[in-house]
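Input structure tokens:
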């Protein structure tokens, strides 16, 4: 039986080849060190249901306390009913409007106006913010002008919109879109401008440029800023709704506020304020759900 010589062993070692290295960029993204992998990328941890329920219960303490204080103050006669109606009176005003078939219409038209105006303003803000955030030339050219328009109060736009677009839905939705545009523009531009340059350099190393670099590196890195801008824009849209529905509107929560003031119905006025707060919180919660899903996808 013959033993292998040193030369034979060397030939065997030379014939062995390492497996080919995959140089493509995985869909899961890249890290500053260049180590990636869809299978090993951690996903954003989801909160247990028990923790969510506990947070909900704790968050309800202050509203319930304020409601109890409101009831105690009105029951003690600290304020006149015309100044501060009791929660029961406000609830009764809501029931009355429901029985008359008016409350549903006010809620529907206001929600429709906010969603349409928010959608238009958010899309324009996202596009403009991306342009300014990714281009220094665009920032120098457009930044000062947009910043000046951002400082204009919402009510200052009302006479101009009436002059340009007459009294109607177009002028109201345009005003809400103006309110939604600036928060999204500001946060998106700032978020993209401060993306970690190591991530951008790694993307360049893998041949990513332009829209591909934005979609796979820069936009995922700026997701928290984008979502913050969306939340601010949605809150701003509800604020601008009241101003928008003052433009000779005959329906909506803003109209209900003005009509209740003119008729001395403080119970309906408080009802409109409470409904605006609840709708604002509900839509903000929807944005929060979208945020958690995006973070899981781009974690």
């Amino acid at each position: 039986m013959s033993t292998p010589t040193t030369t034979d062993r060397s030939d065997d070692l030379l014939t062995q080849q390492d497996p080919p290295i995959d140089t493509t960029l995985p869909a899961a993204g890249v890290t500053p060190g260049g180590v990636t992998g869809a299978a090993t990328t951690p996903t954003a941890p989801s909160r247990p249901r028990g923790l969510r329920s506990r947070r909900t219960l704790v968050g309800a303490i202050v509203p319930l306390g304020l409601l109890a204080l409101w009831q105690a103050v009105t029951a003690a006669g600290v304020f006149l009913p015309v100044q501060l109606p009791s929660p029961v009176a406000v609830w009764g005003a809501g029931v009355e409007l429901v029985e008359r078939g008016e409350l549903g219409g006010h809620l529907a038209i206001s929600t429709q106006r906010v969603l349409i105006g928010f959608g238009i303003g958010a899309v324009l803000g996202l596009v403009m913010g991306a342009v300014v955030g990714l281009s220094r030339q665009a920032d120098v050219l457009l930044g000062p002008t947009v910043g000046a328009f951002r400082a204009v109060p919402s009510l200052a736009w009302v006479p101009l919109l009436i002059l340009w677009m007459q009294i109607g839905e177009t002028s109201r939705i345009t005003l809400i879109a103006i309110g939604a545009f600036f928060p999204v523009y500001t946060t998106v531009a700032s978020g993209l401008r401060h993306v970690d340059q190591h991530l951008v350099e790694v993307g360049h190393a893998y041949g990513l440029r332009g829209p591909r670099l934005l979609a796979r590196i820069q936009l995922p890195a700026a997701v928290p800023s984008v979502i913050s801008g969306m939340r601010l824009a949605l809150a701003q849209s509800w604020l601008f709704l009241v101003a928008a529905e003052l433009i000779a509107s005959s329906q909506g929560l803003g109209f209900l506020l003005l009509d209740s003031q003119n008729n001395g119905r403080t119970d309906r006025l408080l009802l409109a304020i409470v409904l605006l707060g609840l709708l604002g919180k509900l839509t903000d919660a929807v944005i929060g759900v979208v945020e958690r899903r995006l973070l899981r996808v781009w974690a």
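The chain has a mean pLDDT of 79. The two ends are 60 Å apart (CA to CA).
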